[in-house]
Structures are given as structure tokens and as C-alpha cells.
Design brief:
InterPro entries: Cbl-dep_enz_cat, MeMalonylCoA_mutase_a/b_cat. With about 375 residues, this protein is of the alpha/beta class. It is about 45% helix and about 10% strand. The strands form two sheets. Strands 4-3-2-1-10-9-8-7 form an eight-stranded parallel beta sheet. The model has no long low-confidence stretch (mean pLDDT about 95).
């Protein structure tokens, strides 16, 4: 049966079930990204090539704990641990980075962002210190903050490119293969999958502007934005889906933030890491380069997100660049506008957060004005409005 046969039959069936000819207005699903989502896909106009990742297998990253030394191969380090050998280590402390001398058996990556998001400057001394280290990837561009502050998906990617461009202008295009991108993965399962895939496309396009053919190293972590203090079980389900989305999209490393908000226990840390273990070893989804390649839906929204992100990046560059717009407060205002609109959807129930604004429905205790500041980029959870 051809695609031309499938579509009319599908339309006829839905029209019959909905008892209307106007099915597309009913089935249309709004989103705040400005992405056109169809109710049915029978083809993709521009199939995308397989989108590779840097690492052969996605690293499963845990917060360092002595009890995990033998079983875990990738840790986030906030303090120095001299006994580790043959590990992948993500340094998350700039003071620690200055004292590390990598051993041959270990692979070190920096999770330290050299940008001051409030002042619109680059810490040149820190950047040079990190670049002098024998790390696999020396400088992190952190856009997890932007996601948790409420930036749209295409904004997150556009800002990541613009920050990379600022570093190129100071340190040259060769810095592109020394970057690691820290990205928070939210709860919109397929959109977040498409986000990581789209970023590979636009980053590769940026590198080609300099005669290179680079792909980004992506460190993906679970979002804080859709988590709630009194909703632990649902937090666990949300973060598991976020990890799955990141692995399927081909992240090079994944990390699960503790599903307990504002507190941590030994058992919650263990469960948070074992989410990754179950996904990787039961589903084996961390070994594929581009598992969603060929999905008409994911391919289509990947292309749309990539186009919107690149357009925003060009607009930022034409307006003077990321740092200039930070100093003018324009980046902050763009995130603020998006975040406020998103929070309104949460308040109105258009974005459903089970246990917060649905089953049960809690009362609003804080206004949007209490949560967001127009001139500041800060992480805000949706549920804070109700807590």
C-alpha cells in the first residue's frame, strides 16, 4: 500500500470517529516552540543523514561516592580523588581544575563554563588555565541553566552557538573540538530528542564556516524545571524519560540529577544513578549513534528546530553577539518572556504537571512576578508557583 493510499483512509476513519470534516483544527496540538506538528506523518520531505556522536557508548555519569569506585566508570568530581584509575571524570569545580594533573589511565572533561551570564564577560584567565590542561575537552558551554530558566529549545541552541562563536573570536576556531556542551533535557520527550539531534546539525554547520567538520560533545542531564518537592515518584518517572530521550538522541554522556528536590539521601542518589543502568543495560539504548533516525515525526521537528536555532544565531551575531546582548539585557529578556508564557501555561493547566496542577490540583501560592526577574537568568521550577 502506498503513502497516498494510507493518508485518505486515515482521514476518513478519523472524520468518522470525530463526526466532523474539520479534523485538523481539532487534532492540532499547540506548543510554545513555534514548531508545526502534524497529527499524522506518512513521509519526511528532507531525510537527514545519520547524526554521529563523539563517544562510542554514552557515558553513564554518577556523583562520586567511594562505594561506587569499582562499579562506575564515569564520575562528576567536585573534590579531588587521587585513587581513581581508568575512569572518565567530569570536573565540576574551577578550584579543583587548577590542581588536577591527569593520569594516562583517566580521561578528564571540564564542566566549567567560563562565561559570566550576568556581566556578559569571559573569564580569560580561567579559560587559559583550562586550555592548558591535558583534558579531553577543556571548556564547557553550559546551556542547562537556560533550559532551567525557561528558554525555548531553539533559544537554547541559538545561545549555545552564539557562545561558541564568542570563544572562536578569542581563541580561534580550533577551540571547537575542545568544547563540551552541558544541556538539560526536559519533559517534552520527542522535542528534547530532536533538540540534541538539531544541535548536532547546527554545530556542524558552524564548524563548516571555518573549514572544519566537527560534531559537538554533549553532556546531557535531567531537567530541574518540571520537578516538584512533594512529587518524588513522578519526578523519578519524568527523569527516566528524560534520560531515555537523551540516550536515544545520541548524547555522549548522561547524568541524572537527584529526583528529590532540595535534598538528597544515599538511597535517592543510588536510585538516580540506577535509572541510567536500567536504561542502558536493559534497553541497550546508549550504544546507538542515532536511534531515532528515520522517524518521520522526529526528523521533521529536528529540521524545524535546527532552522529556528540557526536563524536566531544569525540574528544574535548581526546584533553584536551574545556578550553584547547579555550586557544590554536582551538575552535575559528573551528568556524571561518565554519563561513567563510557559509558566502561564502551567498555571492554566495547558502544561500538565501531575501532582501539582493535576491530580490533585494545588493552589497557586506565588505569582509569576515573584518567580521571574526580567534582568536575571536563573533556574525556576514550574512547581514553585504551587509550593
Amino acid at each position: 500500500m502506498s503513502n497516498t493510499d494510507i493518508l485518505p483512509n486515515w482521514e476518513k476513519l478519523v472524520k468518522k470517529q470525530l463526526k466532523t470534516e474539520d479534523i485538523y483544527s481539532i487534532l492540532k496540538k499547540e506548543n510554545l516552540e513555534g514548531i508545526d506538528v502534524k497529527p499524522f506523518y506518512s513521509e519526511v520531505q528532507k531525510p537527514l543523514a545519520n547524526l554521529p556522536k563523539v563517544e562510542e557508548n554514552t557515558h553513564l555519569v554518577a556523583t562520586y561516592h567511594e562505594s561506587l569506585e569499582e562499579d562506575v566508570f564515569a564520575f562528576i568530581l567536585d573534590h579531588n580523588v587521587e585513587t581513581l584509575e581508568q575512569k572518565t571524570l567530569f570536573v565540576n569545580n574551577k578550584d579543583l581544575a587548577g590542581h588536577i594533573s591527569p593520569q594516562e589511565e583517566d580521561q578528564y572533561f571540564s564542566l566549567i563554563d567560563v562565561f559570566d551570564e550576568n556581566e556578559g564577560t569571559i573569564d580569560d584567565q580561567l579559560a587559559k588555565e583550562l586550555l592548558s590542561k591535558d583534558f579531553k575537552r577543556n571548556i564547557c558551554i553550559d546551556i542547562a541553566l537556560h533550559q532551567n530558566a525557561g528558554a525555548a529549545i531553539y533559544q537554547q541552541l541559538g545561545f549555545a552557538l552564539a557562545k561558541a562563536k564568542e570563544l572562536i573570536e578569542v581563541y580561534g576556531p580550533e577551540i571547537l573540538n575542545k568544547l563540551i556542551f552541558r544541556i538539560a533535557v526536559g519533559g517534552n520527550y520527542f522535542f528534547e530528542m530532536a533538540k540534541l539531534r538539531a544541535f548536532k546539525i547546527v554545530f556542524n554547520q558552524l564548524s563548516k564556516e571555518y573549514g572544519l567538520n566537527e560534531i559537538p560533545y554533549i553532556f546531557a542531564e535531567t531537567s530541574l524545571r518540571n520537578k516538584a518537592i512533594a512529587d518524588n515518584e513522578n519526578n523519578l518517572i519524568r527523569s527516566t524519560l528524560e534520560l531515555a530521550s537523551a540516550m536515544i538522541a545520541g548524547a555522549d554522556a548522561v547524568f541524572s540529577n537527584n529526583y528529590l528536590v532540595n535534598r538528597s539521601t544515599d538511597i535517592s542518589e543510588e536510585i538516580s544513578f540506577k535509572q541510567q543502568i536500567v536504561l542502558a543495560y536493559e534497553s541497550i539504548i546508549n550504544v546507538f549513534e542515532d536511534a531515532s533516525n528515520g522517524s518521520y515525526y522526529v526528523e521533521d521537528i529536528t529540521r524545524q528546530i535546527a532552522e529556528k536555532a540557526w536563524t536566531l544565531f544569525v540574528e544574535i551575531e548581526e546584533a553584536g553577539g551574545y556578550l553584547a546582548l547579555i550586557k544590554q539585557g536582551i538575552i535575559q529578556k528573551n528568556i524571561y518572556d518565554q519563561a513567563v508564557q510557559e509558566q502561564k501555561w502551567v498555571e492554566e493547566g495547558k502544561i500538565k504537571l501531575i501532582g501539582v496542577n493535576l491530580y490533585p490540583k494545588l493552589e497557586v501560592k506565588r505569582s509569576i512576578a515573584d518567580l521571574y526577574k526580567e534582568k536575571e537568568i536563573k533556574a525556576v521550577r514550574w512547581a514553585e508557583m504551587f509550593e
